Amino acid sequence: DTGVSQDPRHKITKRGQNVTFRCDPISEHNRLYWYRQTLGQGPEFLTYFQNEAQLEKSRLLSDRFSAERPKGSFSTLEIQRTEQGDSAMYLCASSRGQTYGYTFGSGTRLTVV
Amino acid sequence: AQSVAQPEDQVNVAEGNPLTVKCTYSVSGNPYLFWYVQYPNRGLQFLLKYITGDNLVKGSYGFEAEFNKSQTSFHLKKPSALVSDSALYFCAVRDTKNAGNMLTFGGGTRLMVKP
Fold first, then answer.
1. Is pLDDT above 90 for A40?
2. Using the beta-carbon criterion (under 8 Å), do A50 and B104 form an inter-chain contact?
3. Most CB contacts within 10 A, which of A112, B6, B20, B21?
4. Where are the beta strands (DSSP E) in chain A?
5. Which residue of A has its CA nearest to B51?
């Protein structure tokens, strides 16, 4: 069990630029989740994949956000035309199933300047 | 819709004393309940879960939690706090009647254990 890896750990970008984050889940886990966490708040759900299928998307996920999990392994989260309000920690988690807890990565901290 | 409330932003306790971090939930069906801990600049770490069975569940680092269906609560407890327990704690719920698969998290409670 090598854990959930996220890359990069930190990203500073100028407003209007596009950014892409990567998540490598635990290999045996078929479920993958993206959450966003702002300072002092709990994580907010963004989207969920089961294998390569994106099964749920939050209303928080505007059309500037897109996520993929092309082969049911790693996932990417892209934010286009970033805004200052996108500054947050983006957390990826994976899981074996509904009765199992999530295993979280260390997150990608995005700062939009 | 599923929701979680953590009524205390911060809990202060002296080292060696018992601690309780409160959590209440709202679901349509039955709940799956989880506690996570977060240290600075880190992701969340799983502590324990309630799925079914015994209402008292034990988890990592000496933590335990009690599921109370009538009070819709799942409070986190530890008999003797350590300074190293100081961190941010999150309660989370999934509604078994909800077709969705995600966990909904509370706003978090900061635990400060003083020597």
1. no
2. no
3. B21
4. 5-7, 10-13, 19-24, 31-37, 44-50, 53-57, 65-68, 75-79, 88-95, 103-104, 108-112
5. A99
